Amino acid sequence: MSISTRDMRRLALNSQGLLKRAPFGRGLNAVHKAVNQLGYVQIDTISVVDRAHHHILRTRVPNYTPVMLHKLQTEKQAIFEYWAHAASYLPIEDYRYYQPVMQGFGKKRKADRKIRNDILNRIAAEGPLQSRDFGNPAGRKSDGWWDWKPAKQVMEYLFLSGELMVRERRGFQKVYDLTENVLPDTIDRSPPTEEERGHFYIRRMLGAHGFASERQIAYDHIAVNRFSDYNIRPAIRQALADLLESAEIQQVDFCNEPYFYLVHALSDCPVKLGQRRVNFLSPFDNLVINRKRLLDLFGFDYQLECYVPQAKRKFGYFVLPILYGDELVGRMDCKAIRKEKTLSIRNIWLEPKTKLTEAFVTALALALQEYQTSLQCEQIIINKSEPAKLSGLIQ
Fold first, then answer.
1. What is the CA radius of gyration of the chain?
2. How do beta strands 257-262 and 249-254 pair?
3. What was the pLDDT predicted at 225?
4. Is the bond preceding 128 in cis, omega lying within 30 degrees of 0?
5. What whole-number percentage of the chain has pLDDT above 90?
6. What crossing angle do the helices spanning 52-60 and 66-74 adopt, rounded to 10°?
7. Nearest to 330, CA basis, from 298, 359, 289
8. Mutual angle of helices 27-38 and 194-209, in 10-degree steps
9. Where are the beta strands (DSSP E) in the chain?
10. How far apart are CA 368 and CA 29, in angstroms?
């Protein structure tokens, strides 16, 4: 079977909650639905404009606030923190599928037994604690952020091995508690079989992205290999064969590689696009994170250049892809200067094929206003644009 590139884009965008405005609704329940649909929401410390997890959710839930995410983790106990593709918020129902990874990490790594017991005993007696509640050993001076004090290292070990969970974050700092105190009693903790794990990886990936290759499914769950030395490819390969046989998924060739998609997801994809909107995507957005996939699907060559030496940067430190309808049409280098309540745009670049139609310019100007408001900025300053006349059209 063949599917056009346009339809594959729309399938991916619809699955990602980026094809329509407010696809999950509004408010706390919408945030919950968004996390469940995406499978994970990446956590990142960089806050040039907004932290990744807030940016990703705000793009899909128009009235999103960080308080909603905090409530889902603490009051509703609907999400938990662990590593998926990277450090992430995950649906609490998925916890059992990460237990083998935790167990594998515990076997692969070791921690100081005395410090481990001290941490567990103190948390059991005192309640949730942060790493700063445990001082450095006398006479030991830290050389920097990379020189974690022993207690912090062991707390992270206990978190990754499943003995501790993150109850909440205060000022972005983790607050740890015993897993038994955080994980709801209603959650299934039974160990998944190999068959269940394979089906889980595929359904999560295809449900969130619309379609994917075997290689991309494995890449999306890279932490499984990183932390536990568990090769997930055989389980994925067998599950693909099972789901193809049951007709839950179908295969299509794309970019000289077999891709797979959920049959119901293709039928649920809108035939018409409707009014096109502009979204500024986080560099850690689920749609963007696999750069090769992004290039194949959208013809958009993107790299996050904050990890590139300044002299070698082509665009800038923290550049956001610009999505218009079902196309990636440009990128924006911006920064929220919070003390001045200003959204500073160093440059906006449009792709050569992007046309300055009235509809696009209007959508871009509206998106900038909404983005400014979401960042609690009162003004926008545009220093440069390519083409040069764009800045005059949207200010």
1. 22
2. antiparallel
3. 75
4. no
5. 83
6. 100
7. 298
8. 120
9. 41-42, 79-83, 87-91, 164-170, 173-178, 211-213, 249-254, 257-262, 278-280, 319-324, 327-337, 342-350, 379-382, 385-386
10. 26
Query: Could you write out the DSSP letters of every residue in 221-243?
Result: THHHHHHH----HHHHHHHHHHH
> Tokens 């196309």 sit at which residue?
327
Mean pLDDT of 181-190: 96
Which one-letter amino acid corresponds to residue 107? K
**Average pLDDT of the residues of the chain:** 93
Q: Please give the Cα distance from 288 to 277 (Å, whole number).
A: 18
Average pLDDT on 189-203 reads 95
User: Residues 216-244: pLDDT tens digits?
Assistant: 998 888 777 778 878 889 999 999 999 99
Cα torsion through 215, 221, 222, 223, rounded to 10: -170
Is residue 393 within 8 Å of 356, Cβ to Cβ?
A: yes
pLDDT at 137 exceeding the cut of 70: no
What pLDDT was estimated at residue 148? 60
Under 8 Å between Cβ of 223 and 101: yes
Mean pLDDT of 355-373: 96
Give the tens place of pLDDT for each residue, 156-165.
999 999 999 9
Q: How far apart are CA 386 and CA 349, in angstroms?
A: 5
Pairing of strands 385-386, 342-350: parallel
Band the pLDDT of 145: cuts 50, 70, 90: very low
For residue 32, which amino acid is it?
H
**Structure-model confidence comparison of residues 255 and 181, the more confident one:** 181
Which two tokens mark 78?
């609907």
Is 46 in a helix, a strand, or coil? Answer: coil
Handedness of CA 217, 222, 228, 229 (dihedral sign): positive
Q: How far apart are the first and last CA of the chain?
A: 46
Instruction: Check: CB of residue 119 under 8 Å from CB of residue 154.
Output: yes
Residue type (1 letter), 115:
I
Looking at the DSSP bridge assignments, the partners of residue 91 are: 79
Interatomic CA distance for residues 350 and 300, integer angstroms: 11
> Could you give the CA distance from residue 176 to residue 377 in angstroms, rounded to a whole number?
33
